[in-house]
Amino acid sequence: MSAPQSAVPRHIAIIMDGNGRWAQNRGLSRIKGHEQGAEAVRESVEGCGDLKVEFLTLYAFSAENWQRPKNEVFALMTLLEQFLKEKTPELLEKNVRLQAIGRLTDLPESCQQQLHRSIEATSGNDGLTLILALSYGARLEIIDGIKSLIREIDAGHIDSAMLDPEMFSKHLYTRYYPDPDLLIRTSGEMRLSNFLLWQLSYTEMYVTPKLWPDFTKQDLFAAVDDYGQRQRRYGLVL
Ligand code: IPE
Ligand code: IPE
Ligand code: MG
Fold this sequence. Notes:
By secondary structure, this protein is α/β, with parallel strands linked by helices. It is built from seven helices and six strands, in the order βααβαβαβααββα. It is globular.
């Protein structure tokens, strides 16, 4: 299948799920699944580049994922740091600008440093913006947003009577980005798992049984093609 010509989403968000099952199906450790999952990122980044998608948000590590076994969390953090170090030259070559959302200060120190180096190194790129959701939880994000609003109200910068959804959106981690147009979840689960609860209000959803390490550029094109057939109504009669 070639890249679809129909409506292309401006912003795609992906819940990259199924690394553990991919490994278990092969008798491998879950960590091998995460390694393979990290390799699969290239497929979607390239696919978005080909389609001229402006923003790609990848759910890489949730606030809840800290409760996984210690060795898995350690492996994921090591892998993240290694991924950033190894792939930054590739991101530069592909004109990708890296960003991150989540409680980034929860990440190990060396990981944070590498993340900031990669963000800084790619900050001049004007192609795809790749946003990694790390230690991300939507309910925490909303709470952080409320705290930030309260500070502004207390300082007299905002009149609470003027508060509306647009204003609230400006206090979320995602304030610089438009809401996702298309949400993809791999591995067949029909749930949001605390991902972008506010921002996904009118996002089109696409769930595929494919496990994340098997998700290719062609699979991304298939999802975008499906999106192109949808009629977005936003509650109106069209
Ligand atoms: C997604 O794969 C990656 C992360 C959550 C970090 P999983 O590790 O959730 O894989 P499954 O769902 O157990 O197969
Ligand atoms: C969601 O997947 C988080 C990421 C993909 C990073 P999980 O595997 O953690 O979600 P649940 O446990 O199936 O809801
Ligand atoms: Mg999972």
